[in-house]
Amino acid sequence: MSETSPGQRGSFAAVTALFFTMGFITSVIDPLIPSVKAVFKLNYAESMLTQFTYFLAYAFVSLPGGWLVAKLGYSKSIILALAAMTAGCLIMPAAANSDAYSLILLGLFVLASGVTVLQVTANPLAALIGPPERSHFRLTLSQAFNSLGTVIGPYFGTMIMLRGGVFSNASNAAEALTQKLESLRGIGASFEILAVMTLVLMVLLILFGRGLDRPTSKTTPEANRLPVRSSRCFWAYFGAAAIFLYVGAEVSVGSLMINFLHQSAIVNVTLETAGKLLALYWFGAMVGRFAGSAALTRYSAYQVLSFAALGATFLCFLVTQLAGTPAAVAALSIGFLNSIMFPTIFTLTLERSTATAAQTSGRLCTAIVGGAILPMSAGFLADAAGLRFAYLIPMAAYAFIMIFALMSARAPVLRGEIVPVATTGS
């Protein structure tokens, strides 16, 4: 059995840090949603434009991002992505100072464009660094640190964006204006801190990230002979559909959660408290990914994915039927079952796709645009029928993922080792 070298372990640590950063930043959008809803007096669908704009970047940037990685190599692409993320974060304080929701959406799009390039780069890197037979384990372990970021991110955003300001009772118009300005400053301050975080990481990668461009794993002759046109590959599209629905479901549940828990019919807590409780949703995903990493050493990926998708479907159904604490527990527990879905869908698709890993990865990352489409649909349904019934949308998505998992068990594995996404940049 092949072993991981010290250089590969260092590269894997760097990639894992990127996963943490992506999780932290992406999850800050969840407390941003009720914040902009209150500050700009939006309905659910309008407030979901934050997620729509953020995840729309995946539709426009993923395929060019794959080309960029192939052209520049891993390390330069990552540094460029972090620079874009820093710029996006710095747009947010300017947008808050201008009291302009449209500029906030612009900042989110620029930020997400950088995150998209990181996704295109980091997911295949995690799979490639080390022995190929442990690719499911490595990607799931990296996603566990992504989940650590998603646990801390909502708590961080809640403490700054969902306390005081517009969430206090104003006695007159002048006080209301002062409170609105305070909440806008909170939004700006949150993203200023994120800008410092991405800038520091960018500097560290400039100094120490060259090892990411070293060869990671050898490619089998069979993999090299696979057709390069993904347009004819069923599994590239099938996996993309599963990623589209998974990300859409996960983002929908997280985006709805704070307002859902805030309802008097559920747990009737303040938005600040609900934002802190949201951390339990992401904490479940983190615990589940560590547990999933262990499960994947004993059970096949399709078995673990089938179980998780079935459980998530059932929990969403319970949310639509229950009220009070049981409904809250069911909604928060979905995070645990979400835990292993993205990495297992990703690697199951890479193993079965007849396209190169670069093409397949680009298509899978493009499908992350589901995080834009499904939450908007859930927002419209929440406005029309209530927050409980908005969970019907992620329920249907998880049911499809269960079908994907069961079908993957019958499909041939075409790659024992995954084709590298990019060569060393020149």
Which structural traits does this protein have?
0% strand, mainly alpha, disordered C terminus, 77% helix, 426 residues, single chain, Growth Hormone, Chain: A, 17 helices
Report on the structure:
Mean pLDDT is about 85; it is low at about 215-230 and about 415-425. Helix 3 (about 50-70) runs antiparallel to helix 15 (about 370-385) and helix 5 (about 100-130) runs antiparallel to helix 6. The chain is mainly alpha-helical. The chain is globular. The chain has helices at about 5-40, 45, 50-70, 75-95, 100-130, 135-160, 175-210, 220-225, 235-260, 270-295, 300-320, 325-340, 340-350, 355-365, 370-385, 385-390, 390-410. It has a single domain, classed as Growth Hormone, Chain: A (Up-down Bundle), CATH 1.20.1250. It contains 17 helices and no strands.
Stretches with pLDDT under 50, minimum 5 residues: 215-231, 417-426
Q: Might you state the CATH topology name?
A: Growth Hormone, Chain: A
Number of helices: 17
Instruction: Compute the average pLDDT.
Output: 84
Can you give the helix content as a percent range? over 70%
Strand content: under 5%
> Over all CA atoms, what is the radius of gyration?
21 Å
Secondary-structure arrangement, i.e. CATH architecture: Up-down Bundle
Helix and strand run? HHHHHHHHHHHHHHHHH
The geometry reads as globular
CATH level 1 name:
Mainly Alpha
Number of spatially distinct domains: 1
Gist of the model:
The chain has 426 residues and is mainly α. The chain has one domain: Growth Hormone, Chain: A (Up-down Bundle), CATH 1.20.1250.
